Hints:
Blueprint: E1 8-12, H1 24-34, E2 38-40, H2 52-65, E3 72-77, H3 79-90, E4 100-104, H4 109-112, E5 135-140, H5 150-158, E6 162-165, H6 181-188
Parallel strand pairs: 1-2, 1-3, 3-4, 4-5, 5-6
Helix pairs in contact: 2-3
Amino acid sequence: MTSTSSSSxxxxxxxxxxxxxxxxxxxxxxxxxxxxxxxxxxxxxxxDEPDLEVWLAELARHLRALPAEGQRVxxxxxxxxxxxxxxxxxxxxxxxxxDRVLLVSPPSASVLAGHPEIAAFAPPPLDGLTLPGxxxxxxxxxxxxCPEGARTVFxxxxxxxxxxxxxxxxxxxxEGYGPWPSVLEWCLDGDSRFSPRP
Length: 198
């Protein structure tokens, strides 16, 4: 599934993320833009105290604005990964137009419940939830935001493939995920796999 023509990428950040230049999402947006792809990497409102309803509305708005031509790809990290699941559960318009999705390090309900600012983001029931388009999950085997394990909590109930990377933590800047060639390779070829280290 190689992306040869121009594609559109919607990159969604997580809680407390102010899109620092060193973060892999910022790096990725720049690399994709250099290759001539349409990239949307919005600063979502109030990232320190996000409102689920506001973020869902923003997601719907950005989905509507994606160009009709070419492949449309969504990459969602952390709180935005569970935001995507809420959008699917609610049938947010525009989801069906997305060609593939990468969920990166979704946090578990037990962790979200411990933070009042993002407790409302706790994942919706996953049983019977049908994700639009091919969806893949990548997470660390030692993610403090999902101590139960992302495969157990998310990938298995959703029936989606998961790559669990050893020692990758929350796949954030703290763990060294600035430049991350594997995620760029996945954007350009949805069949590529993720290497254990950035």
